[in-house]
Amino acid sequence: MVNRRRAAFAGAATVVLLLTAGCGSSEKGNNAQGTNVQPAGDSKDIGTGYGTDYGASSTGGYGTDAQAGAKKGEPAKELAVRSDGKLGPIVTDSKGFTLYRFDKDTAQPPKSNCDGACAITWPAVPADDATASAGIKPELLGEVIRTDGSRQLTLAGWPVYRYAMDTQAGDTKGHGVGGTWNALAPDGKKAGQQAAAPAPSPSQTQSQVSDVQLSVTDNDELGKIIVDGKMRTLYRFNKDSAWPMKFACLDACLNTWKPAKPVDKTKVRGVASKLVGTVTRPDGTKQLAIDCWPVYWFTGDEKPGDINGQGKMGLWFAVTQGGKKAGAGS
């Protein structure tokens, strides 16, 4: 971050505002008006994030670091269910990468037939540390011993893989490859097979068929941290305040730290509902708050899982599952 940006937001005026969900306390005469701040919180105005490459790699797959991790057999940790516009519900690992099954494998009994060069393109997902989240029955998780003696995760008996050419969370480039590879549905079947099923009735909750807007992911350095619907790490700013509600990231600061959009609480996974709120910024736009703290995403994060904003200037911190500052002990 360049020095002029640091100076700009380090010296930004602190504005006191009330949190619409009831956080903070009111002080008469402190509500700011007329602050000239560009609209924040709308992705149409601020772009898609993660820089221009969004984690793409010339080496193909996961970006440089993640691809290496996949080849070495990175654990999936907590599996999640995400809704794909074409395939319906699909299973992902804790970082949002799509998981697959292979028609040439067998489920009864479980057996993997992807070895050698196949396993480079389709890295096997280890059975270690894999757990099920909402939408996946824990009893469907199992394991199979591969020819090299390693233990591979299975779902409903089917060995589970990643695809090396998926470059970002949510990619489904492996679906349909060779007519034998398919993204996994939560029941272990091929994703997309229910595409022709009748539309959900109005009585079904939207959270069952819509994208998750806020969730928790496992970070190797910080543990469980909160991410938005695009798997962007969310941060809080020490110069902001929750009690009473204050904003200190204004003007030039907003070029680097983008206020996160409010979310539908029915589309939140892994975060206690009582922690999720909304604040009104000085320009009248709405911003997501966690435990009454305004939260932001960082333009310096280039791909899902990045935590490049962690500890910036000793003032910016990722947010834990409980709404606290990650890695700060508070």
From TrEMBL:
Compositional bias of kind Basic and acidic residues: 71-84
Disordered as annotated region, ranges: 28-49, 65-84, 182-212
Keywords of the record: Lipoprotein, Signal
Stretches with biased composition (Polar residues): 28-38
Pfam family, one: Lipoprotein_15
Signal peptide: 1-21
Record-linked InterPro entries: Lipoprotein_repeat (IPR005297), SCO0930-like (IPR047910)
Biased composition (Low complexity): 191-212
Full protein name: SCO0930 family lipoprotein
Organism for this UniProt entry: Streptomyces fildesensis
